[in-house]
Amino acid sequence: MTATPLIQISEERQQQELRRAIASGAAERRRAWRFHVIALLCLAWLLLGFALLGLAFHLTDGDQVRAAFLLAFLIGYGGPVWTLIIAHWSASQS
Q1: Number of Cα atoms under 13 Å in the Cβ half of residue 66
Q2: Coil, strand, or helix at residue 27?
Q3: DSSP structure class, residue 71
Q4: Which pLDDT score is estimated for 92?
Q5: Mean pLDDT per 10-residue run, the chain (94 residues)?
Q6: Which letter does DSSP use for residue 3 in this model?
């Protein structure tokens, strides 16, 4: 007993579907790479914020402490937020 396919697809159509599947896989790899880069950028901003916060605890001048403390929060929160906003904007542009 032999099985017959339900539909017959031409060779040209098979090649077209194969090319589309390969292109889809490449697009998925680009999205994964983009996600990793954005995650690393957000982590870098967060670590910079933590470093400034640690610096604020080691300074002795009140004005410098306040400036480092506020800058730590600005960079620690604002850096990742702006990175995500810009990444979303650039993804919608392309």
Answers
A1: 3
A2: helix
A3: H
A4: 85
A5: 78 86 82 88 95 94 94 94 92 80
A6: -
Task: Return d(Cα 64, Cα 62) in angstroms, integer.
Answer: 5
pLDDT of residue 1: 64
What pLDDT does 19 receive? 86
Q: Is 74 helix (H, G, I), strand (E, B) or coil?
A: helix
Q: Which amino acid is at 15?
A: Q
Cα–Cα dist 83/4, whole Å: 54
Structure tokens of 62?
A: 């009140």
How many residues are present in the chain?
94
The reported pLDDT for the residue numbered 2 is 74
- Short-list 16, 4, 83, 11, CA closest to 46: 83
Structure tokens at 11: 């060779």
SS3 letters for 38-54? Answer: HHHHHHHHHHHHHHHHH
Q: Domain limits of the chain? A: 44-94
Tokens of 23: 């292109």
